[in-house]
Write a structure and sequence with these properties.
Layout lengths: L14 E5 L5 H8 L3 E6 L10 E3 L12 E4 L8 H6 L9 H11 L3 E5 L9 E3 L12 E5 L25 H8 L6 H4 L5 H14 L6
Parallel strand pairs: 1-2, 1-4, 2-3, 4-5
Antiparallel strand pairs: 5-7, 6-7
Helix pairs in contact: 1-6
Amino acid sequence: MSARVLPLRRPNGLRLLDLCCGAGGLSMGYHLAGFDVTGVDNRPQPNYPFPFHQTDALTFPLDGFDLVHASWPCEHFAKVTAWRGSRDNHPDLLTPRRERFQASGVPWVIENVTEAPLRPDYLLCGTQFGLSIRRHRVFETSWGGGGDLIPPCWHHKGLLAFAHKGERAYADAMGCTWMTNLEARKAVPPAYSHWIATQFLALQGRTAA
């Protein structure tokens, strides 16, 4: 279930680095907006559809990229961690890495669960993009948000609930059709990052692919 063979798109000439990329849900959104995407994760990602480095995302060089995205592990902040164990068993990787981004001078995006201490420049939900899922995620950006408006959430009765028995349907509803069920558990819909990319490109006087 791999998507390594993708439709060729004319890139906008900008390079995107996706740290803690997982199987590439958010990477795909940036790709669809026209970015030349490179992913980094400390675990193998056999279905990741773009150039990939299995290495430490915490220290990977940021030089040469026009935009850096990071989805640091959310266990330290997520409510589900408190239900299943202790948040103290998971370090806060977000706060010190944000400081690194701020010192780099490279435009950046950080994504995480809504409980994370991020400034909600963009708070996105699947229903805002016509998807039959909820999956709220918050994005903090170096440019502070703004741009075009999107509709508010609409959590209607037909939304798919995240339940292990329905994982395949949930993954497909997110637009993560190339992933396995397990890979999709922590994935974020490509529609979210496509939206973020569109806002960034507008600030640059460019348009999405």
